[in-house]
Amino acid sequence: MAEPVLEILELRKTFGALKATDGVSLTLMPGEIHALIGPNGAGKSTLIHQISGSIRPNSGTIRFLGQDMAGLDMAARARLGLGRSFQISSLVQEFSALRNVMLAVQARQGSSFRFFRPVMGDPTLTEPAMAMLERVGLAGRAHMPAAELSHGERRQLEIAIALALGSKAFLFDEPMAGMGPEGSKSLTKFLDGLRHEAPILLVEHDMDAVFALADRISVLVYGRVVATGTVDVIRNDPEVRRAYLGEAA
Ligand SMILES: Nc1ncnc2c1ncn2[C@@H]1O[C@H](COP(=O)(O)OP(=O)(O)OP(=O)(O)O)[C@@H](O)[C@H]1O
């Protein structure tokens, strides 16, 4: 069987007397979208922050590509390909989509010697950047300033940047937030294809998106995973229906 890209074992985090993460274990497998759902305050964001490195757990293990993340800060985890999310906006608004991705390609190549060369004409930067825009479906917007892209297109651009920087897994905390119905539909389609580039741990309240995308769903209630399974298993789990989905499921 394939090794998990991300493996979380018995993670615990308390805030005073509150057990925000109460012994969570889960895996993210290659090519997978694993959705994390649960009521408000269940501990979803706290879990994502511990994985990306912005919150330190009290105990437990986080392994990414087989490596223990303990002691690594956010920047170190990001360098290994973990921890980019929509909540950290990495765009230079007045630069074109292409130039934004070129900055990431340049950062990855660590090529400071290029400072004195005309960046926009450098094919070692433009070609991989353009290829990346094609992979995320934004090639037609290459020369448009980031500020003029739609909300959904900006997210596609952020993902192109993350891929150019070497992201090997995505942690997304409510990517559908603030999108209209059309935007959610096209972002759903986009994320569907993205799983083949890198697996996704997806926190999302939009259940249409979750049911359309997830290979597996874990349900978090009061900091504990109360169920993990396929969409069908979760939709039909009586405890999950009672605790979270209600009759809407
Ligand atoms: N820095 C903090 N200090 C104290 N309590 C916190 C802190 N961060 C989160 N909490 C508490 O931990 C619990 C889990 O919060 P968290 O934001 O992780 O939940 P969530 O499942 O992401 O909720 P939502 O769906 O509303 O975003 C909540 O009771 C919250 O009030």
Topology summary:
Blueprint: E1 6-15, E2 18-28, E3 33-37, H1 44-52, E4 59-64, E5 67-68, H2 74-79, H3 97-109, H4 123-135, H5 151-164, E6 170-173, H6 181-194, E7 200-203, H7 207-213, E8 216-221, E9 224-229, H8 231-235, H9 238-245
Parallel strand pairs: 3-7, 3-8, 6-7
Antiparallel strand pairs: 1-2, 1-4, 4-5, 8-9
The protein binds adenosine-5'-triphosphate.
List keywords for this structure.
single chain, 249 residues, alpha/beta, Rossmann fold, 22% strand, binds adenosine-5'-triphosphate
Average pLDDT figure: 88
**Spatial gap, N to C terminus:** 32 Å
What summary fits the major beta sheet?
Answer: 5 strands, mixed
Helix content: 25-40%
Beta fraction: 15-25%
Q: Which series of helices and strands comes N to C?
A: EEEHEEHHHHEHEHEEHH
The ligands found in this model are: adenosine-5'-triphosphate
Structural class: alpha/beta
Assign the CATH class of the largest domain. Answer: Alpha Beta
User: Spans with pLDDT under 50 lasting ≥5 residues?
Assistant: none
Global morphology: globular
Count the E strands: 9
Q: What name does the CATH topology of the largest domain carry?
A: Rossmann fold
Q: What is the CATH-assigned architecture of the largest domain? A: 3-Layer(aba) Sandwich
- What's the helix count? 9
Spatial ordering of strands, largest sheet: 6-7-3-8-9
The CATH superfamily of the largest domain bears the name P-loop containing nucleotide triphosphate hydrolases
InterPro entries: AAA+_ATPase, ABC_AA/LPS_Transport, ABC_transporter-like_ATP-bd, BCA_ABC_TP_C, P-loop_NTPase
Domain ABC transporter: 6-247
Keywords: ATP-binding, Nucleotide-binding, Transport
GO molecular function, one term: ATP binding
